[in-house]
Amino acid sequence: MRPRYRPPTALRVVVGLAAGLGTVSVIALMLSDRAPGVLRQLFGPAAERLSDRIDASARLPSTEQLPESDFLVHVGLWAAVTVLIGLTIWTWRGLVVGAVGALTLSAFVEVAQGRYSSSRAVETSDVLGNAVGVAAGVVVTAAAYLAWSALAAGRARLR
């Protein structure tokens, strides 16, 4: 079942391309030992905070501890991926399937970190952050479906 009104297909194709690029970028970021440096080169000072969270070990003296978690980074990244997937598919069933897919993919990425990355490790808090992010993405996407449908219905009544 899909919401009564949908955005134009061309718009959803553009969002779909962003969803694909975003998903690949998040996977690369989560698996990359060099993610902080790449982010700094691409986004400059705007990425400093994210880079600091990802690569705090490079600047901390050995006597200091690493930040406890990058939970919020995981929430934000996977929420964004889920929203983009949901806005591309634009069906209720597709939103659920997309969310399950995003959550499954995020779990595989976390497991792969321990296997393919020398500086990243599998952490329960990261998996939880991914799940919270996917759930938040579902809520935001559902709100977008409802808002778009309400606006489109109001516009149709005015005609």
Question: What can you tell me about this protein's structure?
Answer:
The chain has 159 residues and is mainly α. It has one domain (9-158). The protein has 6 helices and no strands. Helix 1 (9-31) packs antiparallel against helix 4 (71-89), helix 2 (35-43) packs antiparallel against helix 3 and helix 4 runs parallel beside helix 6 (124-158). The two termini are 26 Å apart. The model has no long low-confidence stretch (mean pLDDT 81).
Low-confidence stretches are none
Percent helix, as a range, is over 70%
Q: Which structural category do the helix and sheet elements fall into?
A: mainly alpha
What is the 3D form? elongated
Question: Topology, please?
Answer:
Elements: H1 9-31, H2 35-43, H3 48-54, H4 71-89, H5 92-116, H6 124-158
Helix pairs in contact: 1-4, 2-3, 4-5, 4-6, 5-6
Keywords, please?
single chain, 159 residues, mainly alpha, 6 helices, elongated
Task: Give a quick summary of the entry.
This protein is mainly α and 159 residues long. It has helices at 9-31, 35-43, 48-54, 71-89, 92-116, 124-158.
